[in-house]
C-alpha cells in the first residue's frame, strides 16, 4: 500500500491500519481503476473514498441517498481538518449555488450530493465544469432494480460520469449485493468483473434466530423485559402494527418510541434523536427507519414480521452490533406474514417479470424461516458466498435436538408432487397426501392417484409444515408467482432414487421408517419417468440485457 495513504489514515483519522478490503480498494482507486467495493455494514466503506479524496488533486463527488447523514459526515470531516461540503434539498437555492461555486473553485476535497440533484440541468452543467477526480457512489445497490432499495435517480449517475472532460475514477460501495445486483452495478458503470473487491458478508458478532409457533407478543415482552437496559429495534411490517406494539409496550412501562412514515416529521425526528441518545431503549418501527442510522450499540433487532426478502432482512438486522459486540437478530415468523408480503407484491407497480422475481426472493425468505441449517450460512449463500462454514452460534447451530431419518416421508411428498405433474400448490399436495375429500380435489379426480392418502396418518398441518421444511432445504421449489406450484429440484432426484437420506430435527414416529408397498409402486414409476427427463432448473434466469431494459419501480418501502 502506498505510504501516502497510510500517512493520511494516521494523520486525519488516527488509525494505524487499514481494514480488510480497504487497502485493496484504495490502491486500485489511486491507480485510476474503477472499482465495486462490497463490505459489510460497519466495515469502513467511507474511508475507501475519503483517503483517495485527500490524495487526488481534484474534487471527490460522493453520491449518497442519506441526506440525514451528509451533515454529520461533513462535520466529522471538518473536525479532522478536511474541507468538505454537501448539497441537497435541505439547503436554500442560494446556499446550494454558492457551495457549488466554492466547490468549482477548488475549495473542497469532498462534495456530498443527493442523487436527486442530478436531474437538475443547471446543477449538472455546473458539476461538469469542476475538476472531478473521483466519483464515489455510496449505497450503490440503489442503482439496481434487483436491489431492495432501488432509487430511480441513481440511474442518472452513469450519464453524468460520461460528461466530464476528463473521466473521473469511479467507486461503487455497498453492503448488500447479490451476485445479480453486483453484475447490474458493474454493467451500468461499465466496470470489469475483476474490478469487484468483496470482503465477505459475514458478521460474526450477530446471533441469528428464527422463532416459529410461539405467541409473538409473549416472546417479545419476555425478551424485552430480560433486556430492559439494552437498546434495540423492533421492526413491524405495517404502521398499524407499529402503533399497536408501541401502545402495548408503553403500557408495560418500557422506554419505547415509534417511527413510521405516517408520523409527523417532528415526531420522527424526536424518536430518532431520543433513541440515538439512549433516552429510549426500544424503538418500534417500519422499514422507514434505519437506512443510515449511525447508532453503533444496538444490541438486538427483532423482526415482529417476516420482511419481504433476505436483502432487506440482512440490511435491517445488520443494524445490530455495528460496534462489533455480540447482538441478537431475531425473526418472529407467522404464516400470515407470507400473505401480507404477497399482498405488498401484488399491490406494487411492478410488471409481471419483476413481480415474479420478487416472489422468488420471498420464497427464499420463507426458506430462511424454515431451514434447519445454519442461518448465517443460509444468508451468505444467498449472497453468493461459496461454502460458508456454520457459524456455531445461531438458533439452528444451537439446536442440538437429534436428527431423525425422514427419507420415506420425503419420498412420499416428492412422488406426489411428481404425480401431480408439478402443477399444484402446497395446499392441494397436502390434501392429496392426507387423503382429504375436498370438492376441488374430487372434481379433478385426484383421489384416483396412487399417492392419494399415503400420509393419511398425519394431520394436514403436519404435512404442510413438512413441505415447508422440504422447500426450505430445497428438496422442493415453489414455482410461479402469486399462486406458486410445487416442483421438484435437483436435490429431489437423489432422494427419490434412495441415494441420499433426508434428516430432520425433532420427533418422527419410528414405525413410519419402513418403505410401505403403496409407496414402493409409486416410487418405481416415478423413478422410471425421471430417468427419461432431463432436469431443467425451475427458475427463469434473467439475461443482463433484460435487466437493463426494465425500468419499473420495486415495491414501495415505507418512506
Ligand atoms: P460502512 O459505511 O461500511 O458501514 P463506516 O465507513 O461508517 O462503515 O465505518 C464504520 C466505523 O469503522 C467508523 O466508526 C469508522 O471510523 C471505523 N473505521 C473505518 N476504517 C477503520 C480502520 N481502518 N481502523 C479502525 N476503524 C475504522
Ligand atoms: Mg456507509
Ligand atoms: Zn449458525
Automatic annotation (TrEMBL):
EC number of this enzyme: 5.6.2.4
PROSITE patterns to which the protein is assigned, alphabetical? HELICASE_ATP_BIND_1 (PS51192), HELICASE_CTER (PS51194), HRDC (PS50967)
* Family annotation (InterPro entries): DEAD/DEAH_box_helicase_dom, DNA_helicase_ATP-dep_RecQ, DNA_helicase_ATP-dep_RecQ_bac, Helicase_ATP-bd, Helicase_C-like, HRDC-like_sf, HRDC_dom, HRDC_dom_sf
Q: Which reaction does it catalyse?
A: Couples ATP hydrolysis with the unwinding of duplex DNA by translocating in the 3'-5' direction
Highest taxon above the source species: Bacteria
Q: Which GO terms describe its molecular function?
A: helicase activity
Q: Which residues form the Helicase C-terminal domain?
A: 219-365
Q: So which cofactors does this thing need? A: Zn(2+); Mg(2+)
User: Which protein, by its recorded name, is this?
Assistant: DNA helicase RecQ
Naturally occurring in which organism (per UniProt): Sporolactobacillus shoreicorticis
Native organism taxonomy: Bacteria, Bacillati, Bacillota, Bacilli, Bacillales
Amino acid at each position: 500500500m502506498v505510504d501516502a495513504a497510510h500517512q493520511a489514515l494516521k494523520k486525519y483519522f488516527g488509525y494505524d491500519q487499514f481494514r480488510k478490503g480497504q487497502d485493496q480498494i484504495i490502491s486500485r482507486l489511486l491507480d485510476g481503476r474503477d472499482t465495486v467495493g462490497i463490505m459489510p455494514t460497519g466495515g469502513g466503506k467511507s474511508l475507501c473514498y475519503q483517503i483517495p479524496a485527500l490524495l487526488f488533486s481534484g474534487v471527490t463527488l460522493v453520491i449518497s441517498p442519506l441526506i440525514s447523514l451528509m451533515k454529520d459526515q461533513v462535520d466529522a470531516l471538518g473536525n479532522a481538518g478536511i474541507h468538505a461540503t454537501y448539497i441537497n434539498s435541505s439547503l436554500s437555492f442560494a446556499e446550494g449555488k454558492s457551495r457549488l461555486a466554492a466547490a468549482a473553485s477548488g475549495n473542497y476535497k469532498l462534495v456530498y450530493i443527493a442523487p436527486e440533484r442530478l436531474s437538475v440541468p443547471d446543477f449538472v452543467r455546473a458539476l461538469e465544469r469542476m475538476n472531478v477526480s473521483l466519483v464515489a457512489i455510496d449505497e450503490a445497490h440503489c442503482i439496481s432494480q434487483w436491489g431492495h432499495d432501488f432509487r430511480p435517480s441513481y440511474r442518472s449517475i452513469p450519464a453524468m460520469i460520461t460528461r466530464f472532460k476528463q473521466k473521473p475514477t469511479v467507486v461503487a460501495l455497498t453492503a448488500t449485493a447479490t451476485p445479480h445486483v453486483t453484475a447490474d452495478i458493474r454493467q451500468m458503470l461499465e466496470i470489469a468483473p475483476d474490478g469487484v473487491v468483496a470482503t465477505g458478508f459475514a458478521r460474526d458478532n450477530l446471533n441469528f434466530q428464527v422463532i416459529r409457533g410461539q405467541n409473538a407478543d409473549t416472546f417479545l415482552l419476555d425478551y424485552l423485559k430480560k433486556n430492559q437496559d439494552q437498546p434495540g429495534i423492533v421492526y413491524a411490517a405495517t404502521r398499524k402494527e407499529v402503533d399497536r406494539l408501541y401502545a402495548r409496550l408503553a403500557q408495560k412501562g418500557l422506554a419505547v418510541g415509534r417511527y413510521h412514515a405516517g408520523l409527523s416529521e417532528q415526531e420522527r425526528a424526536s424518536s430518532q434523536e431520543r433513541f440515538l441518545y439512549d433516552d429510549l431503549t426500544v424503538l418500534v418501527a417500519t422499514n422507514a427507519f434505519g437506512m443510515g442510522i449511525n447508532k453503533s450499540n444496538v444490541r438486538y433487532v427483532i423482526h415482529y414480521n417476516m420482511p419481504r426478502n433476505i436483502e432487506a432482512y440482512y440490511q435491517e438486522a445488520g443494524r445490530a452490533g455495528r460496534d462489533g459486540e455480540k447482538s441478537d437478530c431475531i425473526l418472529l415468523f407467522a404464516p400470515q406474514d407470507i400473505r401480507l408480503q404477497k399482498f405488498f407484491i401484488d399491490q406494487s407497480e411492478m410488471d409481471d417479470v419483476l413481480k415474479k422475481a420478487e416472489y422468488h426472493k420471498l420464497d427464499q425468505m420463507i426458506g430462511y424461516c424454515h431451514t434447519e441449517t445454519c442461518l448465517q450460512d443460509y444468508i451468505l449463500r444467498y449472497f453468493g458466498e461459496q461454502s460458508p462454514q456454520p457459524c456455531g452460534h445461531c438458533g439452528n447451530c444451537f439446536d442440538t435436538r437429534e436428527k431423525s431419518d425422514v427419507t420415506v416421508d420425503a419420498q412420499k411428498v416428492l412422488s406426489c408432487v411428481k404425480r401431480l405433474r408439478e402443477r399444484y400448490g402446497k395446499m392441494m399436495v397436502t390434501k392429496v397426501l392426507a387423503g382429504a375429500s375436498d370438492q376441488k380435489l374430487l372434481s379433478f379426480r385426484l383421489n384416483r392417484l396412487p399417492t392419494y392418502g399415503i400420509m393419511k396418518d398425519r394431520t394436514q398441518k403436519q404435512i404442510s409444515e413438512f413441505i415447508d421444511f422440504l422447500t426450505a432445504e430445497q428438496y422442493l421449489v415453489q414455482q410461479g408467482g402469486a399462486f406458486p406450484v410445487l416442483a421438484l429440484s435437483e436435490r429431489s432426484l437423489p432422494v427419490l432414487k434412495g441415494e441420499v437420506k433426508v434428516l430432520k430435527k425433532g420427533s418422527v414416529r419410528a414405525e413410519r421408517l419402513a418403505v410401505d408397498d403403496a409407496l414402493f409402486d409409486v416410487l418405481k414409476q416415478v423413478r422410471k419417468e425421471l430417468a427419461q427427463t432431463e432436469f431443467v432448473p425451475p427458475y427463469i434466469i434473467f439475461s443482463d440485457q433484460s435487466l437493463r431494459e426494465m425500468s419499473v419501480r420495486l415495491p414501495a418501502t415505507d418512506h
